[in-house]
Amino acid sequence: MTIYFGRLVKLAANQLTRDFDAFAKQYDLTSTQMAMIDYLSRSEMVTQRDIEQEFNIQRSTATLILQRMEKAELVRRENLASDARQKQVLLLPKAQALETVIQAYMQESDQQLLVGYEDQQVREMTQLLENIIKGVDKHA
């Protein structure tokens, strides 16, 4: 029996994205926008470069997503005083109003994913996924 582990990881990621999109849609968001709001709400100071690294996306992709979020009045980008080449990303009131509901959804989603697994299994799965991400990154 051949196991295509990469395929299973991709299918799992697709399912999670569908679930996240379904939840985000009720707030006129995409799953990516929801995840970015969550990330921004848990961080004191975030630059566009931080977002690129956190979500493992290219600068052009981050720019496009952030432009759409600016148009939807969810975020604002402004130059850093210390380095005008860097842009800080700030949540606007519309996104701030969603912080609690998004954080609660993300936490509940994680809890549901991990039901029935022992702490050691969760640590091992986390390590496995982190290694996959690092490995994929090395081949990019």
Automatic annotation (TrEMBL):
Gene3D superfamilies membership: Winged helix-like DNA-binding domain superfamily/Winged helix DNA-binding domain (1.10.10.10)
Domain HTH marR-type: 2-134
GO molecular function: DNA binding; DNA-binding transcription factor activity
Regions crossing the membrane: none
Record keywords: DNA-binding, Transcription, Transcription regulation
Coiled-coil regions, chain positions: none
Pfam family name, one: MarR_2
PROSITE patterns registered for this protein in UniProt: HTH_MARR_2 (PS50995)
Name of the protein in question: HTH marR-type domain-containing protein
Annotated source species: Lacticaseibacillus brantae DSM 23927
